Amino acid sequence: MRYQLQRAAQGLLPGERVKHCQRSTMSESGVAVFRTSDSGASFGNLTTCGSVWHCPVCAAKITEQRRIELQDAITAWTKKGGEVYLMSQTFPHQLNQALADNLALFSKAQQKFKNSRAYKRIMEEISSAGSIRALEVTHGENGWHPHTHTLVFAFPGQLKLLEQLDMVWIDTLVKIGLADRSQLNEMLQYAFDVQNGDYAAEYVAKFGHEPSATSKTLTNSHWGASHELTKGHQKVGRRLSGRTAFTLLRDYVEGDEMAGELFQEYGKHFKGKRQLFWSPKLRKALTLPEDERTDEEIAAEELPERELVTVLDHEQWRLVLSRNARFEILRVAEDEGAVGVARLLAELTERRYTHSDHYWERGRRGWNHLGGFIGKAAMDA
Ligand SMILES: [Zn+2]
Questions:
Q1: Residue 291 CB partners (closer than 8 Å, separation 6+)
Q2: What distance in angstroms lies between residue 166's CA and the mean position of ligand 1's atoms?
Q3: Which end of the chain is more exposed for a tag (fewer CB within 10 A), N or C?
């Protein structure tokens, strides 16, 4: 599924690094196929893009690593006797608001909120050691919904004080121009939410996990809250039901052209944004190591103790790409090793109609966004 979605992203964002991810080879020596006993199979000697926003394959690897870091932070703070709160923020959405506009204003509002005297006073009163903010976006019936979830590391039993930030956030939204006073009721209901440690732990446990193929809406899995938790409590969460970027990709693969255009808009404006922001002194307060790996480093990391299954030469790799069979290669490598890979390669030469043939045909008829890139990428490899 991730490879299939990645392929759609490659067609939709031809100017981005994702286009070459897990397709272009890094040297003349072909493409290595590895497997490990517990983490499945992987390719070696291929470019990785390291984009948590654009690439479903890299995003899975990166967010899993980030999830472990968040988990370590919560564990460290809880061991010190602290509590981690989950604060969620968004703003009233108007239909067809451009993502570029509301994203810029939203980030301005976040900054103003954190610089406000009231915020600083409350953070001091709850003895906050810092916070980690996660930026997310969904697309629902009212358009784009950028929102943040922030883990606040503080003393236990401070929920009441944190709830006072409700009005501080609403004032900020009005001052920045993301809402006006007439929307007060809506904002009181949906714009701000803070929950205690159980919710924070639950959110982190599911961080980065994709909604299942059958769930068109993602509220529950996306929010990291189990069904009971969402029901009646996660007010911001209920408001944010909608499609994630990768759900848009999936809908596009299934024929929803509009979803593809939305993914392009998202891809353009999220590029370069930080997904997670740790406040500067938090790692020190948690006695966690400072060395933070970049997304690119995590995505490019190779698993230790991997076994070399086989090496595909350039012609074989071109065949795999042209039949859209990267994932199939990994699956047979994992299950059957070199023999399985050799058998699949022989089968691929016989295979005419695959997804990629389908897109290739479309491309030749002038639906250039998918067809064109396959031909080019295959040549790149
Ligand atoms: Zn990638």
A1: none
A2: 38
A3: N
pTM over 0.70: yes
Read off the pLDDT of residues 292-318 as tens digits, 9 standing for 90 and up.
789 999 998 887 788 999 999 999 999
CA 219 to chain centre: 15
For the chain, state the CA radius of gyration. 23
CA of 60 relative to ligand 1 center, distance in Å:
9
Number of H helices, E strands in the chain: 19, 8
Strand ranges of the sheet holding 276-278, from the earlier edge strand across to the other edge: 192-195, 83-89, 143-154, 130-140, 276-278
From the CA of 44, how far away is ligand 1's center (Å)?
13
Tokens of 280: 């500067």
Residue 56 Cα to ligand 1 middle (Å): 7
CA of 22 to the centre of ligand 1 (A): 7
Residue 314 tokens read as 């350039």
- Give tens-digit pLDDT for 91-131: 887 767 789 988 999 999 999 999 999 999 999 999 999 99
